[in-house]
Amino acid sequence: MMLPFVERGYSVLIPDYSGYGFSEGKATRRHVKEDGIAALKYLRGTGEDLGALILYGQSLGGHLAPCVAAEHQDLIDALVVEGAFSSHDDVAVALAKLGFFARWMTREMYSAKRSIAEFHKPVLVVHSREDATIPFAMGERLFGAANGPKTFLPIDQCHVCGPFYYPDSISDHMLRMVEGARGGTP
Q: Which DSSP helix (H) or strand (E) runs through 82?
């Protein structure tokens, strides 16, 4: 999924969250958030000069990325959120046909919309107008709630397909965000 960014010179770490891929444990919102924090701390703890660190979250990861970013602003330089839902309440209303699952989701432990407002570094919100999974309006809500320097990049194609279809545009936006945050130094 992130190969287009590797091809453009970015170093990428894609951790398996608890309960996903080859990771053990149970996939809960708390565990996924803790895994994201652990990945950031691991990267910053290597002692290597990593350059700018951009937290890029997609879908469920895009919902939790602002929550991690807001609590650990000292560890990252910028935030990209793609195809994320704005809050559990918003997605429950939009997907009400899911019945019990929708009611379960409304237990608002973490809110991307609330957290992105508390993040004071550059933000890029990417959302497809053709997203059949998460309504486009949720990307607009996240952008509206974002604080500080922010950019909204509406795209076409499918849910979280930005890196495949728009790698140059997203990469250019990320570079500008980091240059702005670091005074011209990526």
A: strand 78-82
Closest CA to 155 of 139, 142, 144: 139
pLDDT tens readout for residues 88-102 = 667 666 666 655 555
- Which architecture, in CATH terms, is 52-181? 3-Layer(aba) Sandwich (3.40)
Q: Token digits for 90? A: 């918003």
SS3 string of 16-61? CCCCCCCCCCCCCHHHHHHHHHHHHHHHHCCCCCCCCCEEEEECHH
Contact indicator for 19, 25 with CB cutoff of 8 Å: yes
Angle between helices 60-71 and 29-44 (to 10 degrees): 60
Q: What's at 80, amino acid-wise? A: V
Q: What is the per-residue pLDDT across 4-40, written as a single tens digit (0 to 9) for each?
A: 888 888 888 888 778 877 888 887 778 888 888 999 9
Tokens of 5: 């960014």
List the domain boundaries for the chain. 52-181
- Burial zone of 95 (CB within 10 Å; 0-12 exposed, 13-18 middle, 19+ buried): middle
Tokens found for residue 168: 């140059």
Structure tokens at 135: 């309504």
Rounded to two decimals, the pTM is 0.86
